[in-house]
Specification:
Archaeosine Trna-guanine Transglycosylase, Chain: A, domain 4, Rossmann fold, 28% helix, alpha/beta, 3 domains
């Protein structure tokens, strides 16, 4: 079992993989040093004397600047390190050649839709156009569960507080996300439930949905019904017969789209779980599959690593816009761009946004960036197979919903602190440490904390790949077993 790790040869700090008491002697690269303070798990200690104003390197990159002189063996954290980041930056394209050798295809058992798309679940979704009918949608969901049988796996409502009293891009975001969910292939059938007088009414939403299969997508306007619940149940009974016609069949993993997100990160996130997800991403892409990385504010400080992996200069400029547009979003609301990491992140050992971002972007692996997606943009419409970047905030529910709306069949969610939330698609919770896995086994699906005990990242990425294939083939994740299905839309504008 490793007790500590120096991640990159150029680093001037190491990370404690377990709590290390003061006066412990550690040996790194043949040199011994004495810890002068207690170092909590996931936290950093200095490998040499660091002068005030000097850059502190972790992952081979700066994670901040020393606020004071730091002695060798000292604890390095928020009390003696500050961010070195500025506001808007000027970037230059320094293309880094990256390529992955193709590997043998693997199949999973999925659902082939009539339009040729692929789903990993065969559910019926109830999509309210406006928050006014949320309770009606939830009541319909409960009463319609009697139609869950055969290959109909679940009937789920996705209440939300939007759809009216919105303006401009804020309203557009709601319409795009709702339309994206209507088109998602994990739903074998969809009931769109409207009120009738809302801004984003059904007639308006149909323009965003575009061409649809009338057997698969049904519409109901509550104000036009005598008993909207009774009429909805009749529609769902008929819809369940249509959805029940679909059966799982072998499908190439090249058709899988997997979203990648982290939350409640700790000092082990960038050492265990995120590199494992990065290895998974490379492996899936080598088989022709697609991954999507989001949470743009947690790319700040590591964005050049992604920019230089862009396949061409056009994508580089789109990535620059992705980063700077989010910075402008913060400043337009008079907010500090670098108001991060969170209290939980800091308790887990993350000291600055650069520290968090360099760990966060480990999830992208080493593949070239092949697509940059706007919020609400579907990967099949704009992005390419391979690694895509998606514009969305760091908020767990909003970002995971954005991944689903962009076409992710499954979301991989790494966490050092734990969370029970779900998203519209199966959300695999991946722990960064074994203590969390053992404590919250009802939340966690896959444990990467075994890296500390000696499991190699190479082995672990294969284990994760196999687990994802099993989930794509029907294995339920913990949040699904608990009956959790969450959805959150990015609110950006005024409310009328």
């Amino acid at each position: 079992m490793q007790d500590y790790i120096k991640i990159h040869p150029q680093d001037c700090v190491a990370v404690a993989l377990k709590p290390l008491p003061s006066n412990t002697v550690v040996s790194i690269e043949g040199e011994e040093l004495l810890l002068t303070e207690d170092i909590p798990q996931g936290h950093k200690f200095a490998l040499k004397d660091i002068a005030a104003g000097e850059s502190i390197l972790k992952y081979g990159s700066p994670i901040g600047i020393a606020k004071e002189n730091i002695k060798q063996g000292s604890w390095v954290h928020t009390h003696n390190i500050k961010t070195g980041l500025g506001d808007l930056l000027t970037y230059s394209y320094k293309k880094r050649d990256t390529c992955l050798k193709p590997t043998e295809d693997v199949t999973f058992w999925g659902y082939r839709r009539e339009d040729g798309s692929v789903g990993v679940r065969n559910e019926i979704w109830i999509i309210p156009t406006v928050g006014c009918v949320n309770n009606v949608a939830s009541s319909i969901e409960k009463q319609a569960r009697k139609f869950v049988s055969g290959t109909v796996e679940e009937i789920v409502a996705f209440p939300h507080p939007y759809g009216c009293s919105q303006m401009g891009e804020d309203q557009e975001n709601t319409r795009r996300i709702l339309a994206d969910l209507v088109k998602h292939p994990n739903a074998g059938g969809v009931l769109v439930l409207g009120l009738g007088c809302e801004n984003s009414n059904i007639d308006k939403l149909k323009k965003y949905i575009g061409t649809y299969d009338a057997n698969r997508v049904r519409f109901l306007v509550a104000q036009e019904c005598e008993d909207e619940i009774a009429e909805a149940l009749a529609i769902l009974e008929d819809l369940s017969r249509y959805v029940g016609r679909f059966h799982r069949e072998p499908i190439s993993c090249s058709e899988l789209v997997i979203g990648m997100k982290c939350g409640g990160s700790d000092g082990l996130s960038g050492i265990t779980a995120n590199p494992t997800v990065g290895g998974f991403s490379d492996l899936l892409i080598s088989k022709g599959g697609t991954t999507i990385l989001t949470e743009v504010p947690e790319m700040f400080g590591a964005e050049t690593l992604l920019m230089n992996r862009c396949e061409n200069e056009e994508l580089f400029h789109e990535t620059v816009d992705l980063i700077n547009n989010f910075k402008n979003y913060f400043t337009s609301h008079n907010q500090t761009i670098y108001e991060n990491p969170s209290p939980g992140n800091k308790k887990g050992g993350i000291s600055t946004l650069e520290d968090k971002s360099l760990g966060c972007t480990q999830k992208s692996g080493s593949a070239p960036v092949r697509g940059v997606l706007k919020y609400g943009e579907r990967v099949c419409e704009k992005g390419q197979k391979g690694l895509n970047l998606l514009s969305a905030p760091g908020n767990d529910l909003v970002a995971s919903t954005a991944l689903a709306a962009s076409g992710a069949h499954i979301v991989l969610f790494t966490t050092g602190r734990g969370t029970p939330f779900a998203s519209p698609v199966p959300t695999i919770k991946i722990s960064t440490n074994s203590a969390l896995n053992d404590k919250k086994f009802n939340w966690i699906d896959f444990n990467c904390g075994t890296v500390v005990d000696g499991t190699s990242l190479e082995d672990l990425k294969q284990y994760l790949f196999d687990f994802v294939i099993s989930v794509a083939s029907g294995k339920k994740v913990k949040a699904e077993n608990a009956g959790f299905h969450d959805m959150a839309i990015f609110k950006q504008g005024v409310t009328l």
